Each structure stands twice: as C-alpha cells, then as structure tokens.
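testing teh design pipeline on a random one, pls ignore if ur not involved
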C-alpha cells in the first residue's frame, strides 16, 4: 500500500528483508540484502504483479554482508564486506582507550569506562573483543554464473583488503571496485580485467591524495571522511563519488593509468556526503550534464539542508558549474518527523531520457523531470507504508527496467514495483 502516491501505480510487492541495491536485468531483479544470513535474492519479475523469489545466494559467513550486486550477461557480481564494520572498528580503539584511561585514572579502567570512552554500550565489549580476535579476511567480491538464474554457481571469490568492498560498477571488460586495501586509508578504486572471470586481474588503482599512508601520504581530513564511495563509467571516463570530497572525473582512456581531470565539491556548506555521481549519456537542453546525489546520514541537524540532488554542467570538466538542485520538502511525506532518515540516498544509475527516479529515505520515490536541467520538476511520487515494526519506510535503492517499471528497495524491509502514470 501507499501512504502517499501521485502519478504512480503500485503493481507488485514482496515482503522480504531489506537491502542495499536492486538491479534489473531481463526478466529478473537481483537484490543485495543488508544483513546476514540474507545475501543475494534473484526474483522473477516477468509478471510485475506477481514477483517471486527463485534463488538465494548466502553470504560467505555470518560475518559478511553482500548488500550490493551487478549483473552483466550471465555473470552476477556481489560485494563481500564486513558486517557491522563501523561497530567493529570501534574495537580497534580499545587498547589506546585503556592506555589513556589508565594514565588519567591511575588504575586499570572498568569495561563500563572503556565502553563510554569508545562510544559503545558496556555489554558490547565482549562482542568487540571477539571481533578483534577473529579478525576479518573475507572482504572482496564474488562472481557467479547465472546462465540458469534459478541455480547460480560460484566462479570465484576475489579477496581485497580491510573491511572489503562497498558499492562498485562492472561492464563487459572491467570491474571498478570500491574497496579498502592494505596501506590505504578508506576505500580506493581498484580496476580489474575480467577477460577471464575465474581469475580477475588487477590493472590499476586510483585514490585521493592523502589516502596512500604506506606511500608516505598524509590525509588533510579526519578519519575516513574522504574516500571513494563508488565510480561509474561513461565512455572513457569514470565519475567517482568521494563522500565528503564531492565528485571526481577520472580519465581512463589508458586503463592502466587513471588520472583526475575534474572535481566538484560542495562540502562545506553541505553536511551530507556524496553518494553517487554520473553523467547523462546525451546533451539535455544544450548542456553536458552530470548528477550527484547525497546520502543523508543519521543524526541530521535540524536547520541544515537534507541530502539532495545536484545537477551540474560538465562541458568543461576542469570547471564544473552547478546548474540546479532538487530537494523534497518535509511536507511531502507523512513520515518526515518519524525519527528515521528523511533525505536523499540514491537515483537510478543509468539514464535514457530526461526522467530521473530517486529514492528519498522517508520521502519515498520521486519522479523528476530534468528536461530543463536548470529547473528540475517533480512529476510523480510514491511513499510506501512503513514496514511492519518500523516507524517509517527507508527507500534505499531504485532501478528502472527496460519496460520503464520502477523497482524500489527498502533498507529495512520490502520491495515494490511501480509504474509511473503521469
């Protein structure tokens, strides 16, 4: 059902565990779920009014999630990333916190005092210590043969480093992987040659100046604020969203030597990180345009703008110019004050015309006409009911299939198939 709908018709839905990405290829939707034991679901959507799960791929262990997915031909690619990675990172600070507290208190600290110092609950300390002792070595990506979608077959598991792979892009020849790697601070880009899918071969890397700690670089930011979220290919360029460092344009005409040729950053004054950056494949109203979307994070500060969409002119990549922004008013969703994230998260990562569909966490799915890129207009919306047990929907990802149907995935629970009927 819908809490609010405008020019959108609900065709089908499934009550399934929430996910991080939905991709539609042919008659099937592929969903990467947020949390183990749920991994990747393959759903027959040939009848959009009666979608049905036909296969499920488990994560490699209970300690990894596989919440991102791509499909190229008969190959399915899924990330492998440490589950609860932000939580387990706090365990890395236990020893330093113990030293500091011992010096301050003149005695060994209690678990409650340690927990308070690293911002966890006291009952979490055993879990953190177990995670430290266990370590983590599964991070990377897996490739499956899905010639028979109902019976996916593992081809290989490529291991990378750190907590593993987040979102990524793939085409017929290369995988553009956002991952942590030994010696680097935060996610960087690693490009793999897929000529032999059973043995992907690394061909190059790209990173922000300051990330290569082992190479003697020093970051100018705090923690992992500046890092690659993921990069999308258009022609001989990659469009890389780099969290609190905005978007980068990367020339890959020589795939072995990626090089930065453009940068657009709006931090500050904006407080939400850049999630996705991609270029429209054709000019729109005479402009070469690209789009960036924020991911609104927990703890939004009232009085500050919510996560939103930017439209930029990239005719001159050395001088990227903003044309417009698009935002959603809190008045446009009954869940805007439900206590969960409200603002933007993602839009479909391909564009064939001038209609853009975007997932707004508590704001549902928004249909945006960008035929005038200086004045984007909302022409439809769908806000689903809150999933059972949750205060609001959290629309997390969206894809559009060859029929023009809109596939929407909730972060916590639920999957909807919509038709835009203006």
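output:
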């Amino acid at each position: 059902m819908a809490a609010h709908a405008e020019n959108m018709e609900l065709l089908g839905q499934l009550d399934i565990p929430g996910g991080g990405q939905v991709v539609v290829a042919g008659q099937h939707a592929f969903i990467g779920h947020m949390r183990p034991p749920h991994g990747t679901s393959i759903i027959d959507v040939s009848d959009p009014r009666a979608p049905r799960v036909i296969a499920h791929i488990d994560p490699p262990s209970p300690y990894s999630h596989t919440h991102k997915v791509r499909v190229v031909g008969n190959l399915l690619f899924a990330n492998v990333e440490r589950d609860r990675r932000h939580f387990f990172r706090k365990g890395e600070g236990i020893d330093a916190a113990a030293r500091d507290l011992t010096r301050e208190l003149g005695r060994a600290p209690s678990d409650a005092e340690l927990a308070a110092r690293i911002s966890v609950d006291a009952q979490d300390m055993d879990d953190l210590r177990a995670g430290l002792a266990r370590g983590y070595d599964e991070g990377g990506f897996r490739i499956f043969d899905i010639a028979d979608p109902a019976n996916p077959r593992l081809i290989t598991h490529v291991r990378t480093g750190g907590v593993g792979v987040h979102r990524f892009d793939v085409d017929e020849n290369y995988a553009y992987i956002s991952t942590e790697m030994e010696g680097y601070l935060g996610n960087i880009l690693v490009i793999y040659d897929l000529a032999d899918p059973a043995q992907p071969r690394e061909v190059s890397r790209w990173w922000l100046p300051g990330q290569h700690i082992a190479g003697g670089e020093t970051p100018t930011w705090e923690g992992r604020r500046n890092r690659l979220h993921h990069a999308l290919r258009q022609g001989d360029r990659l469009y890389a969203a780099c969290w609190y460092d905005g978007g980068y344009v990367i020339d890959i005409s020589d795939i072995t030597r990626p090089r930065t040729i453009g940068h657009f950053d709006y931090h500050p004054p904006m407080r939400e990180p850049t999630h996705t950056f991609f270029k429209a494949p054709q000019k729109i109203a005479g402009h070469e345009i690209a789009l960036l979307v924020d991911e609104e994070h927990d703890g939004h500060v009232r009085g500050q703008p919510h996560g939103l969409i930017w439209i930029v002119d990239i005719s001159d990549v050395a001088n990227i110019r903003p044309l417009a922004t698009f935002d959603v008013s809190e008045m446009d969703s009954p869940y805007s004050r439900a206590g969960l994230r409200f603002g933007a998260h993602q839009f479909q990562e391909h564009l064939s015309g001038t209609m853009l569909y975007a997932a707004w966490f508590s704001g549902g799915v928004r249909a945006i006409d960008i035929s005038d890129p200086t004045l984007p207009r909302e022409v439809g919306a769908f806000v689903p009911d809150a999933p059972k047990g949750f205060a609001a929907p959290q629309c997390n990802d969206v894809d559009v299939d060859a029929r023009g149907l809109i596939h929407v995935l909730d972060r916590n629970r639920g999957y909807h198939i919509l038709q835009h009927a203006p």
